[in-house]
Amino acid sequence: MILANALFGAWLLSAAPTAMADTCQGPIDHPGEAFSYVQPINTTILSPYGHSPASLPSPNMTGNGGWELALLKAKQFVNTLTVEEKSWMATGQPGPCVGNVLPIPRLNFSGLCLQNGPQCVQQGDYSSVFVSSVSAAASWDRQLLYDRARALAEEHKAKGSHVILGPVGGPLGRSPYNSRTWEGFAADPYLTGVCMEETINGIQDAGVQANAKHLIANEQETQRNPTFAPDANETTYIQDSVSSNIDDRTLHEIYMWPFANAVRAKVASAMCAYNRLNGSHSCQNSYLLNHILKGELGFQGYVMSDWGATHSGVASIDSGMDMTMPGGFTLYGAFWTDGSYFGGNLTRAIQNGTIEMSRLDDMIMRIMTPYFWLGQEKNFPSVDASVGPLNYDSPPDTWLYDWKFTGQSNRDVRSDHNDMIREHGAASTVLLKNERNALPLRKPGNIVIAGNDAGPPMQGPSLRADFEYGVLAGSIGSGSCRFSHLSTPLEAINARARKDGSLVQSFLNNTLLTTTELTWPLWNPQQPDVCLVFLKSFTGEGEDRTSLELDWDGNAVAEAVASHCNNTVIITNSGGANVMPFADHPNVTAILAQHYAGEETGNAIVDVLYGDVNPSAKLPYVIAYNESDYNAPLTTAVYSNGTYDWQSWFDEGLEVGYRYFDAHNISVRYEFGFGLSYTTFNLKDLKPKCSAPSKLTALPAKRPTEPGGNPALWETVYTLEAEVSNIGDVDGFAVPQLYVEFPSSTPTGTPPSQLRGFDKVWLPAGKKRTVTFELMRRDVSHWDVTAQDWRIPVGSFTFKAGFSSRDFRAKYDVTLIKA
Ligand code: NOJ
């Protein structure tokens, strides 16, 4: 039913109306474009799970949102290509980079070099290893995220990479057992969305193309790819890849959300994932690629496959995929031989009319427009010859093209980035516990360093495997890095202790530390001033985690040391959540989660331990009491052998991460957004900054789609402010956070608290300041599956501001009524 007047009368004010300054931007909605209010919301007409209806044809790019000029250049370029050249531009080739597009020398086009990854130049010698993405997310610091990405991209560019295969918007961390959460950001779409946007801006401002991956719901490694009979080609599966089955609302509000931010940031490309979505392969899911990504979100760039995620030619192309990787003629087994789908077959499909030339032209324009937009045709550094031999995706003996290398090889691209990495490492270290004033350290006379995570890795500079000895500062797989320098905790603490004249004893063998026959205590004199215990958790691409405990008997090491040392400080280097039973031990006085902190991990932890840096990072996920407290277990096995039997039902809906724990009132050890400081902050007086819009429609005005979707979704509709003060005696950064509790009229399944704003502000001791939270239309809307649009619900909103998802210091209620 269509009601005549669809306008909301006003953001009706809270019980105690506050005098509001009228100096802010008013409502952005176009008053003349009121929308019909469709009700009731009838979810039963749709299947509880999303489906993937065909959405054809693939939308052509328009270049709108700032790429118009670049598109003209791309069109001119495409006009000069033969059909074969066009086909091969959409098809990767073995070569020096992890993904390669062939040069076309007659057009002075030197090809495209696509390189991993999110933390470093994966194939880079003389390059830096930055803090991992999960560490960067834990900083809750937009500037840090931008700076890190920009510096990373500068190094990539200097090595000749046109495209960085990152950032990672999924896995989001639906389950803590996912082993790639360290390559992504946070188990929350809002925080991940901000991280995606800052990272993409940083990368692309440096002139390198970013790639938002993995689209979408790539939430487990297990069965991420089909299994094949040993002698089969890709048309005969034993079992197909896992299907992430997600309802429409959850897809929009959780998993697509960060990708919408990515598109809004004008990301050059997106990588479709290995897994299926709602029964259809991500790379040939026309609903996902044509309808949502290119249609609803107005994505202007190109969709490339994850390596080997292409399972068809014509179907994938019609469904919106623009580039297949690694592409043609690769010499791997069945797993990798997707090349034949594109290349020559694409040319034939054009010649026999199965695919229209206009579709192929759009594919190439999508590939070339970001190239021209970023000025990559002008003086772009050549590919450094040294990357080729380090390429294990297509090693030199697989190359068919005679790649020519110019310019210096083994370029040192590190600049002075290690200073930044050290700062970032400290800024992303989360202080979880600090009792009896354990930290910061004050010139301790007698220090014990314990745990197998404190020293140097014993297996070389490239972290390819789980190893017993050595600090974990990165991990394996396509996100792995080659360290050209690594500051270890052992080395950094020793250096600091020497300055202070402290005694240092180290015990790095976990087996010895947990062996009962040993005569404890091992140290001398008998009671050290502090025991610093370094423990780790290895997580990496290809194999999900099976436990959230610390590796190498880490929990037992923590207990053993704590039982002999009354001031035990635990430091973890882990890819994601760990359970921490030792946190209850009275002698465990402090705990720090440092994640994978890159090449300056040792110096960075010293900066925090000794108080040169006041910790300010916050958990980007939940640390539960027990492993069994987490929901959404991965699908680790199926008990039948049907081709399509691997199904992962995302039936927790929106209850991902803290949303689940809150909805079910489950106590947690450390909640999302939590992290201590050496000072104390307060927050009060949460209130609107200015008058609320007087005419706010339930649905957004329909504006022409821009990158990111309907621009009305990104406009501020309401601004709140609060006062934050540093009431302790140490200067530091506070991270005020804003969560929204939606009105009861919102469809069921809406979590009690959802992050919708945060800031990171420097506050000298004793000072206070005002922070503002700007809420965009999307932030106060839910995805209405019937209207197929974002709807602001009527009723009472509660805005909750504080220092974590469970530590609210001030609330503000706003009631929306229908006019
Ligand atoms: C597979 C990974 O999923 C992806 O993240 C990576 O970029 C490609 N391989 C290329 O190495």
From TrEMBL:
SUPFAM superfamilies linked: (Trans)glycosidases, Beta-D-glucan exohydrolase, C-terminal domain
Catalytic activity of the protein: Hydrolysis of terminal, non-reducing beta-D-glucosyl residues with release of beta-D-glucose
Main location: secreted
Signal peptide positions (record): 1-21
Molecular functions per Gene Ontology: hydrolase activity
Pathway it works in: Glycan metabolism; cellulose degradation
Key words, A-Z: Carbohydrate metabolism, Cellulose degradation, Glycoprotein, Glycosidase, Hydrolase, Polysaccharide degradation, Secreted, Signal
SMART domains: Fn3_like
Domain of life: Eukaryota
Keyword Transport attributed: no
Location within or outside the cell: Secreted
Broad EC category: hydrolase
Gene3D superfamilies from the UniProt entry: Glycoside hydrolase family 3 C-terminal domain, Glycoside hydrolase, family 3, N-terminal domain, Immunoglobulins
EC number per UniProt: 3.2.1.21
Ranges for domain Fibronectin type III-like: 734-805
Family that this chain belongs to: Belongs to the glycosyl hydrolase 3 family.
Cited function: Beta-glucosidases are one of a number of cellulolytic enzymes involved in the degradation of cellulosic biomass. Catalyzes the last step releasing glucose from the inhibitory cellobiose.
Name of the protein described by the UniProt record: Probable beta-glucosidase G
Source species: Aspergillus cavernicola
